[in-house]
């Protein structure tokens, strides 16, 4: 059994992005720029945005840290997003979700120009993903694929089971696995005999948000297990997979924390660089 | 075993659309309008467009039959599509594919305004489908769902297997089945043990375009089998499923021809009415 070291892989990706940004700038281009937009003063959201800005600085991506007051109107947010759409120094735009309750986050996200949608969550980016057309893909699903790739998991014809069908994770991962030529089953809360469905997986992705839903004996011997879950149980962060028993059967498995999590910001940086290159 | 009568169900749908169009017009609205755009003089395409126009007339949808010469430029097609986008009498626009070789059909389709994309094939419509947001869905996948619905097939938690992953059929059907709460497996040419994968299906959708690829003994006893294939074999139209043997095991099965085929135009009419209502 091999434990997937998400932190180390994320660091590799970040190093690569730093080198590629340096090459890009050395070739005479402006540094890529990431604008984050935070509405209100939610503490957790502020930490996430701070981490993203810090990560930008480390790879020499320009960070633009925009804050709007908690009572900002829909029009205020739209106006800012449109300004950022028009600003050539801004390669990518990230509206930190969720915004205060009086605002519709996903709807506002649609104001972001497709070429700057580095979170990859707008309908147009979703459409480009599912149609296999060039575009920006969502960061966490990209991170899962990166983990599988760095461990040389053969996806061609593999049975992949994705438990969860969120717009953010489950459905885009299913799409990426399908593009990698896996046979993909998307399972969810209404799935009958979820244990049996999981047992057929050569690659098992858990993205439901229910602590320890997936038991160790649901894991096929030798399977690659990617746990996207981030649940708090008895004061500790834990995944959707019962790690202690799953580890006995998996060939490859992500811990929680330290598995998929660190990849999200790394892929955001990579997306920002890609957006800059695509716009050039 | 019940044979699905696609012709009869399509006729029911067309009757319903006709009644709903009449109610819509009686309520003081303009009749919905469908603009078809045919570039060049391909005989088969001309027949398809003719059928669509005839179907419109039967349900009192206004038909606008636009023809461009075989040497029409990309700009010519775009200009026409933009005019139709702006024309309030046109509720839906269908660019007949494929256009002559010098034109990029899918790319041109992207010029159609999302609210008028009655074929449901643009990236934005694809994104709305996969994100489960309101929008126009592609006609053939909608037709498959309609057949299952009219036969009261219980999709909740059912194991659905879709063989094929085209943008036109396989992927959108997988998405619609997932929204109906089926556990959905998308299989394809790289799938290992396709026979075993098919055998687990309560609902089996074949959309590959290979005559008789799916053998009768791959069908689970009592399964609902939807065959989207339209292949020519020994001069006869035939599906992707070996019908004569599958019929012994299926609980419900579409013939080819006369199964899914007739639904496509019926769903196009329904989409056109929906587009008119959404635009009002």
TrEMBL record, chains A, B:
The keyword DNA repair does not apply. Pathway: One-carbon metabolism; tetrahydrofolate interconversion. Gene3D superfamilies: Leucine Dehydrogenase, chain A, domain 1, NAD(P)-binding Rossmann-like Domain. Signal peptide: none annotated. NADP(+) binds at residues 164-166. HAMAP family: THF_DHG_CYH. This is Bifunctional protein FolD. It comes from Solirubrobacter deserti. The gene is folD.
């Amino acid at each position: 059994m091999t434990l997937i070291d998400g932190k180390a892989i994320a660091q590799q990706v970040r190093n690569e992005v730093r080198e590629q940004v340096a090459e890009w700038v050395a070739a005479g281009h402006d540094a890529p720029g990431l604008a984050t937009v935070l509405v209100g003063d939610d503490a957790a959201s502020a930490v996430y945005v701070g981490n993203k800005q810090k990560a930008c600085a480390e790879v020499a991506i320009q960070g633009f840290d925009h804050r709007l007051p908690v009572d900002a109107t829909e029009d205020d947010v739209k106006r800012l997003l449109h300004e950022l759409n028009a600003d050539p120094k801004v390669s990518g735009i990230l509206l930190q979700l969720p915004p205060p309750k009086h605002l519709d986050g996903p709807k506002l996200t649609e104001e972001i120009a497709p070429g700057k949608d580095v979170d990859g969550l707008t309908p147009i980016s979703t459409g480009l993903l599912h149609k296999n057309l060039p575009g920006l893909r969502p960061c966490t699903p990209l991170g899962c694929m990166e983990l599988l790739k760095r461990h040389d998991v053969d996806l061609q014809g593999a049975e992949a089971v994705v438990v969860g069908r969120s717009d953010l994770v489950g459905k885009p991962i299913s799409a990426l696995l399908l593009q990698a030529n896996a046979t993909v089953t998307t399972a969810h809360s209404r799935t009958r005999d979820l244990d049996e469905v999981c047992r057929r997986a050569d690659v098992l992705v858990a993205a439901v948000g229910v602590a320890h839903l997936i038991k160790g004996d649901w894991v096929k011997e030798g399977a690659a297990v990617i746990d996207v879950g981030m649940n708090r149980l008895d004061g500790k962060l834990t995944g959707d997979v019962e790690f202690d028993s799953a580890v006995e059967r998996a060939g490859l498995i992500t811990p929680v924390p330290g598995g998929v999590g660190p990849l999200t910001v790394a892929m955001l940086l990579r997306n920002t660089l890609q957006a800059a290159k695509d716009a050039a």
